[in-house]
Amino acid sequence: MGWLLVLPVLAVLAVLVVYPLVLGFWLSLRSVHFASGTADTFVGLKNYLNVLGSAESRSALVHTMGYVAVAVVLEIVFGTLIALVLDRGFRGRGVLFAILILPWALPGIVGGLLWMRILNPDNGLLNSLLYQLHLIDHYQVWFSSPVASIVLIAIVHVWGVLPLIALIILSGLQSVPEELHAAAAVDGAGAIAQFRYVTLPLIRPAMAVALTIGTVAALGIFDEIYILNGTALGTRSIQTQIYLTTFGQLDFGRGTAMAFLLALVTILFSIAYLRGLRRQTV
Length: 282
What we know:
The chain has a two-stranded antiparallel sheet. The chain is mostly helical. It contains 13 helices and two strands, in the order H-E-E-H-H-H-H-H-H-H-H-H-H-H-H. 76% of the residues lie in helices and 1% in strands. The protein has helices at residues 2-28, 46-53, 55-86, 93-105, 108-119, 125-132, 146-174, 178-186, 191-202, 204-219, 223-229, 238-248, 252-281, and strands spanning 30-31, 41-42. It has a single domain (45-281), classed as MetI-like fold (Orthogonal Bundle), CATH 1.10.3720.10.
């Protein structure tokens, strides 16, 4: 009876998840290059080796790791601060909570368009504000260097993902018994000591979930890059390179191989976080 009840769900998963994965992996083992007009042939791991040996792929990987580093650090730090603020009862908490949810509710393209208006080098709101405050003497081209571009794009990405990270950490904070804080206060522990020795160890599972989600989201960054800086070589992520390879060059075999390598990197990050959490909790 149990198998009969779950059979419809298994069938849906098989059609929508398993079959596309198997078909995609088979595609990654073949030479499917519509632009060149060559025949569809089996090439084994050649696509994967070409991806690993490509200078463009390695550059995209470095950029993606930059996005991940900036985004995850900012999301965890500011997500924890926001969660600590929302964990306390105060007037207007509901309004602040609703404002916090708004960036997360907006599609990535919409958020990118909003920030493109803010960061526009000719008439952007940020340039205008800084100029009127006499903090700059001329309008800045914010995406003039690869490093600055990666940091700015990562900040825009954080703006959209931060609400979710803060909510995850907030759920962990709300599961901490208040009696533990009271006992620590009686023992003479201050606010910082309570957070370090009481709160932080108990919210590590929530932190692990937040780290995993933040890292997966940063590894898959695409919308913000495409809207703010197009397909510029200095800011391409792995997802951008997958898009250009698959739909720009029409090399579906190599693009699919790149997508599976990205999935492998994502899985490795998730396993590392889970193993780290298990080691700390045992």
